[in-house]
Amino acid sequence: xxxxxxxxxxxxxxxxxxxxxxxxxxxxxxxxxxxxxxxxxxxxxxxxxxxxxxxxxxxxxxxxxxxxxxxxxxxxxxxxxxxxxxxxxxxxxxxxxxxxxxxxxxxxxxxxxxxxxxxxxxxxxxxxxxxxxxxxxxxxxxxxxxxxxxxxxxxxxxxxxxxxxxxxxxxxxxxxxxxxxxxxxxxxxxxxxxxxxxxxxxxxxxxxxxxxxxxxxxxxxxxxxxxxxxxxxxxxxxxxxxxxxxxxxxxxxxxxxxxxxxxxxxxxxxxxxxxxxxxxxxxxxxxxxxxxxxxxxxxxxxxxxxxxxxxxxxxxxxxxxx
Length: 322
Prior knowledge:
It is a single chain. It is built from twelve helices and ten strands. With 322 residues, it is an alpha/beta fold. The protein has one domain (11-318): NAD(P)-binding Rossmann-like Domain (Rossmann fold, 3-Layer(aba) Sandwich). An eight-stranded mixed beta sheet has the order 3-2-1-4-5-6-9-10, sandwiched between helices. A two-stranded parallel ribbon has the order 7-8. The longest helix has 23 residues, at 176-198. The protein is globular and about 50 Å long. It starts with 10 loop residues before the first helix and ends with a helix.
């Protein structure tokens, strides 16, 4: 009998009884928060985890407790805001030649001030989408048949569709949450496009919303004391007016649950090319009110034609064809 999980489930509960011995898994963003917990939960079940992080010394400190347990965790350098770093990381992994069973593209930034990556891309789109787009495509040849790619997106995708005309805000007034929404929509569309290209080889891709979790991800948006609670109160007031359930924050172990569920436990055909939340595949949501953080995925984020257009634009921006 299959076990049902929910928003309250933790990564350990989802992986209870699962043996990942012999599995090799890449997790990006293992210097804090969800990335560390995701790596720990997978390594605790016998997986050999390769953790990628921009700041290796920070990642070493954050994951020391994992290695002290004798669990298999290696660290590699990866700065998603630098395509030179992304390509260097990917080239080193390809040169090593060891295959992966899962890639969890967990790293990201949220609602930061306007800026550009090393390559001139708007910071959030460049880091959250283009960095992972290049990394995953460059190591695609290492993915075993039956493997999965899990891209961390967000309910924040409802803040904005991707802008394929002005992705870098060259002509559009910059708004941090709009930029975040664009990048999170791109994460879903990348999953749709990657899944279409690789499912015939038994390799699937999916996107997940981990939930609202208090981690370093919010260091820009919620820097002021009390600002996070204020934001939650605003969301709940808006949801109440719309007749929707209250928005509830998750713990870090709960936040990592959907990632490992989609990567390990769920059926590949169930999650392939889809958007998941609270350890299940999300339904559709046609609401156009971006102030509401409701369950479900907006149609533009899973539109296959939109996914192809983004793929073409992404290749143009990074100067590579995949």
